[in-house]
Amino acid sequence: LLALAASIPLDGLVLSSYCADVFVRREETAASANEEVLQEALPAFWMVQSLLPQPPVALYIPYTTRCSGHLLENALRCADGLRRLGLYHTIAVFAPPKRETLPYWTPTKPNQQQADYLRLHHPVLLLANIARFEGADGEMVANFIAGGGVACFVGPRLARSNCFERASLIGAEKTDTVVTDHIHIATDMGYLHAGQRVALKNKVKFEALLHKRGVVLGRVDEKHTVAQAVRFGEGVVFATPLALWEENTTLSAFLTNLLLEAVFTAGREHILLEHPLPAETEVVCGGKNGKLVVCVVNETDKELPVVMRLPESLRKGAVVSILSVGGSVRKVVLDEKQAKAGVRFRVPPHWFALMLLEKKK
Length: 361
Fold this sequence. Notes:
The strands form four sheets. Strands 1, 2, 3, 5, 7, 8, 9, 10 and 11 form a nine-stranded mixed beta sheet that branches. Strands 13-14-19-16-17 form a five-stranded antiparallel beta sheet. It is α+β, with helices and mostly antiparallel strands.
């Protein structure tokens, strides 16, 4: 129930709370026990729901997904990956123009209203493991970016389209296999800083971009990049061949920082949580009424320790208001040293932590 509270609904389906093994793990419990738990959780449900901010990131599902079970499965797998990375997101499905919404009508034109809406409410469009955009899909994505949106192309497959050249959009045409034990951070990215050398512990084999244009964010060598950013119209495109379900924890953390850089570029804020998070975790993070709302829902049977790094705007000092069911609020004031060190807290099993963060006055 609390996981549901921390999710953004879409046409009655809470896709962002999807869990790959939801149909496998089933337990029979007594009705009376369920009722008792429900009575306890409902006040928490409404408290979390009342404070939900707009997610900065929208995981995009192309029109062609409606005709392909594989693409829908990919979208759900990507949603799982985002939950494990601790990135607050919603799901955006291609919406055709009004006159093309009738059954059996294949959209031929993008919906400009959708592009405008996404730029305003969910300014980071995540395009994950999509091989190709057909027709109106590609045009909508190109319009979204050119009009000032931020897009993030994530692998392992990077989309092609007749509406744009991949080299001009993401700054690379092909990928190449590399084997390395480190990544150089070339430009500040998320919570990583230029000049850092990220060690991978052992040599790891993965795909890298063959750089053609744009700003290099992380590289293996002069030829191979792990992430880069390219200007497209008034918008920005971030690209990496890494997958949202990357198993290497260091590469996974690198990917999280890339996604956070996209969020920061769009003018939004987001915390960074220590990796890896359990699969049964929901994270909410976004601005609302001048404060940063953070909620972590722990769906596991064990207490969840959380290490949270604060965004730049809060590192000179912050006030953390910890909310509890019943209306009580406990305030913790962090000085600059404490704010830079981050916040540590624990979330009880099958419960949540909800807090509001603001600058120290």
